[in-house]
Amino acid sequence: MTVDVVDYDPGWPARFTDERKRLQRALGDAAARIEHVGSTSVPGLAAKPVIDILVGTHDLSRLDGRNAEMIAAGFQVRGENGICGRRYYRRHAPDGTRLVHVHAYLEGSEDFRRHLVFRDYLHAHPVSAAIYGQHKAAIVAAGPLGREDYSAAKAGLVAQIERDALAWAAGRRKVPSS
Question: What whole-number distance in Å separates Cα of residue 79 and Cα of residue 132?
Answer without folding.
Answer: 29
